[in-house]
Amino acid sequence: MWGPEGLDEVEAELLGPPEELKGKDVLEIGAGAAQCSRWLAAQGARPVALDISHRQLQHALRIGGSFPLVCADAGELPFADASFDLVCSAYGALPFVADPRQVLREVRRVLRPGGRLVFSVTHPIRWAFPDEPGPEGLSVSSSYFDRTPYVEQDEDGLAVYVEHHRTLGDRVRDIASSGLRLVDLVEPEWPAWNTSEWGGWSPLRGNLIPGTAIFVCERDGGPPAEGWGSD
């Protein structure tokens, strides 16, 4: 699944037709318990599940799978250049780092020429609305252009959860400046069969405003142009 709407990769084929995944080297970034890697392995791909959280990878280990689990920072990928055919991330890593360009540069480095990156994040427009599933979540309450991170703290004032807001334009510029090419932007519509509510997700909101943005990117065959990555 690419997001709470329920868009399935079997249906979407954003990584390519399932039958063409066999034998592909795939890196999942922000893998959590490695659900996506487990599905990829079932298609015959050779996934590697990476997450910075050791506890999440412990869950992945407990669930099981025959693919490698790697505990590492997405901004410093411990892999050689051109190691992977595909990189994917479903709500992993990119929303939670202050410098997504560093992650994207690293992804480009480990992708083979012609390789593809697909990642999903909360749709940027959501940041302007309260995180409520009911009618109170349908009125704009803050500026879409306010890039102040959302932070949760423990009783000692230490940050335990941080999520960074990037506008849609920010995301596109991050991709381009990292030497990747944006080939598609998918905004899944809320399907009639999905009646679930979770946090601020609900049919009411999903039928009116987008909740997920999925970016499909490719690496070309040449080196990054001079100036890639400059702010």
Q: What tags apply to this protein structure?
A:
single chain; 231 residues; alpha/beta; Rossmann fold; seven-stranded mixed β-sheet; two-stranded antiparallel ribbon; 9 strands; disordered C terminus
Topology:
Layout (H helix, E strand, L loop, with lengths): L8 H4 L12 E5 L5 H8 L3 E6 L2 H10 L5 E3 L12 E7 L9 H11 E12 L27 E4 L5 E5 L4 H10 L3 E6 L16 H4 L5 E7 L13
Parallel strand pairs: 1-2, 1-4, 2-3, 4-5
Antiparallel strand pairs: 5-9, 6-7, 8-9
Give an overview of the whole structure.
- The protein has helices at 9-12, 35-42, 54-63, 100-110, 168-177, 203-206, and strands at 25-29, 46-51, 69-71, 84-90, 111-122, 150-153, 159-163, 181-186, 212-218.
- The chain is of the alpha/beta class and 231 residues long.
- It has a domain at 9-125 and 166-198 and 210-218: Rossmann fold (3-Layer(aba) Sandwich), CATH 3.40.50.
- The strands form two sheets. Strands 3-2-1-4-5-9-8 form a seven-stranded mixed β-sheet, sandwiched between helices. Strands 6-7 form a two-stranded antiparallel sheet.
- β2 (46-51), α3 and β3 (69-71) form a beta-alpha-beta unit.
